[in-house]
Amino acid sequence: MKTYNINKRINTLLLLVITMLSFSGCDLEPQEKFRFDPEVDPQFTFGSMTTWEWLQTNPNDEFGFMIEAIKQTGLQDMYNSKTETYTFFLMKDPNWTNNGPGFFSREFNLKNTADRDPKEVFEDPAVDLDIVRNYLLYLTLPIYVDQGPDHLKTLDLPYTFETLSEDVNNQIMTIARDWNYVMQINDSPDLPTGNLGKINVPVGYHNYIFSNGNSVAHIFGLNSNGKMARRYKFGEPKMDF
Fold first, then answer.
1. Among 1, 10, 142, 175, which residue's CB has the most CB atoms within a 10 Å radius?
2. Residue 151 contacts by C-beta under 8 Å, 6 or more apart in sequence?
3. Radius of gyration of the chain (CA)
4. Which sign, positive or negative, has the C-alpha torsion 93, 84, 234, 151?
């Protein structure tokens, strides 16, 4: 009999606690899935180190072709500046060498470059260094842009930015961000399809801050599937959009 009474009291107490928690839970505000806080979330700050200096360390041995492209086109000073303001989009090796949507395949129909030395590939007669240079300039904005609300205020809205490219068909880029602030490049219904198809690329890694905060870099990652970020071939006559 005593055991029954004790168990009954325990069950009653548990029911009371559960009921109280249920009522108190009704007053709780739903928690946001993600909130961009620039004081916490910028993630990779390198002080006075420049983008070029960081690339020279070749993190995880993934930027051999990016490094060689900059050398071959003479753009070291731009990536090495500590005073100018830039936003750089950096490509890992697969974005250069992928046999489908990669740079060498799309621009020069040059296949099977992944296992070749980067210097040898860039010196291949099929490679036009003027196009390589303009593509690097296309991946460079002369302003500072991260995916925070100061620059990309509205969810899923593509914002248009002018790049440094001198190519007549590749001078603008659109950038949007989704609910958790992942950047999408050239995912805009207002961009004409172009002669390379409707190519849009997600950014894999955000906010690598260099040059005492004057420059920021974003990196195309594995989720870009080796894609490039433009819809139009370089070096072509101006298209009638």
1. 175
2. 144, 145, 159
3. 25
4. positive
Answer for the pair 65, 116: CB distance below 8 angstroms, yes or no. Answer: no
Q: What is the pLDDT of residues 47-78, one digit of tens each?
A: 999 999 999 998 889 999 999 999 999 999 99
Token code pair at residue 233: 């071939």
Tokens 């198809």, located at residue = 197
The dihedrals phi and psi of 80, each to the nearest 5 degrees, come to -100, 0
Are 94 and 220 spatial neighbours (Cβ–Cβ below 8 Å)? Answer: no
Kindly report whether the global pTM for this prediction surpasses the value 0.90.
no
Sheet holding 172-177, edge to edge: 159-162, 172-177, 183-185, 201-202
**d(C-alpha 109, C-alpha 229), whole Å:** 17
Neighbours of 133 (CB within 10 A): 20
